[in-house]
Amino acid sequence: MAINNSESESESVYKKGQSRLHFLRRLRTFDVGGPMLNAFYHSVVESTLFFAVACWGSGMKAADENKINKLLKKAKSVLGTNLDSVSVVAERRMLNRLLAIMDNPSHPLHNTLARQRSSFSNRFTLPRCTTERHRCSFLPTAMRLYNSTMCSHTRTHTHTHTHTYIHTHIYPHPGEL
Questions:
Q1: Same-domain check for residues 99 and 169
Q2: Are 96 and 171 members of one domain?
Q3: Which residue of 16, 88, 153, 156 sits 20 to 30 Å from the alpha carbon of 65, by its own alpha carbon?
Q4: What is the pLDDT of residues 24-70, one digit of tens each?
Q5: Which residues, including other chains, have CB under 8 Å from residue 21's CB and lie 6 or more apart?
Q6: In this structure, are 65 and 108 located in the same domain?
Q7: Separation of alpha carbons 37 and 39, rounded Å
Q8: Which of 134, 68, 139, 57 is nearest to 93 (CA)?
Q9: Which of 21, 55, 82 is the last residue of a domain?
Q10: Residue 134 and residue 137: Cα distance in Å, rounded?
Q11: Using alpha carbons only, how large is the chain's radius of gyration in Å?
């Protein structure tokens, strides 16, 4: 889904999110407990809002991001817990997707990523992007994100330890906070 290319697509995600949020509010009016509300949020509301965030997260327009963040703020007030913003969720999911590709030798992008990897620092050399659309696409954005987390958090750790470190320390799942 290219949310930044069509107003109707972003509006569709927003309307679906509002609809799912209505059901969350209705559950709260029936005195459904916190764990059940959280389960409903994660399985129904969150999945609707973030189903393709790893693809369109970096190229999302600010107005569209603000709309979805407003829905998250409303869900936060219903649940009574902290929720991550769209940009945080997008970064976490992009990084997790990139790490999954790196760990799966049968993935079509695995060899491409291996060729882009520096033998000296384990950072990625970024592909040459001639258009803004390409620069904001998944692979260049995920590679920049990986490089920035590698540079700012660890330099001498092994590849496997870095994955564990990134998964558990930099981008923990909101339920683990």
A1: yes
A2: yes
A3: 153
A4: 999 998 988 888 999 999 999 999 888 878 777 677 888 888 999 99
A5: 45, 71, 74, 75, 78
A6: no
A7: 5
A8: 57
A9: 82
A10: 5
A11: 18
